[in-house]
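The passage that follows is intended for readers who have already worked through the single-chain material. We present the inputs for a multi-component assembly, then the predicted structure in tokenized form, and finally a short commentary. You are encouraged to pause after the input and sketch how you expect the pieces to fit together before reading on.
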Amino acid sequence: MNREPMRSPLGQALGLGSAMNGLEHWWLQRVTAIALVPLTVWFAASLIAHAGNDDATFIVWLRTPTATILMVLLLIALFYHTALGLQVVIEDYVHSGMKIPALLCVRFGCFALAVAGILATMRIAFGA
Amino acid sequence: MANETPKRSRPLSPNIQIYRPQLTSVLSITNRITGVILSLYAVVLVAWLVAAAEGPHAYATVQVVMQSWVYQIFLFVCTFSFFLHLCGGIRHLAWDAGYGFELGAIYASGWTVVGASTALTAITWITARALAG
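Having made your guess, compare it with the prediction:
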């Protein structure tokens, strides 16, 4: 308490809050959520339309420019949103020494899965 | 952090074991649980794309797994989770914009989420089954 007057106004302000980046997290979760509304509805509708089809039909569909672009956008928004969401779940419920490793696993896992998914989509789109 | 926090085990609030479940609290935790379930589906989605990129042999293996009843149950849970998370998410976006905070509106939107998710899940599966033949 007595130390507070010794700190500059900027120092006091910077000391407030938990991580100083709460708004960015909150905002990007909303941005990705809004992007995911049309993207996931498109994906679900496409899955229903292709129910019972074989792999050749599925690949022909994914090779169309619209489907390729929307799939890549879906993967980016989906894994960004997943990383932000799982981060909050871990921060709220994991209080042991596993917290930091769990946060790292979520971040790395989401990034790796997004890259794997995008590259697979590209291989299907541009493959022979 | 001049003084250490005393290490005493105090009861956490709210003490959820003695709370009667309410629509508001149940839908709140449901949005989290469905989010975690959908992140599992996201892993499956990538596995499916990678298999399709690998070629017909890998894709056929994945298809065998996807036709198993275990996967079909998982897919059904994911479908319901998807619509709950989607409708619940739209409800959250309305709150973020400042709408629907009155008690009546909160219950009305909550039951709408439950009803719409159930109906959309049923429509999805009936349509997919009909198209698959």
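Commentary: The mean pLDDT of chain A is 89. The CA atoms of residues 14 and 20 of chain A lie 8 Å apart. How closely did your sketch match?
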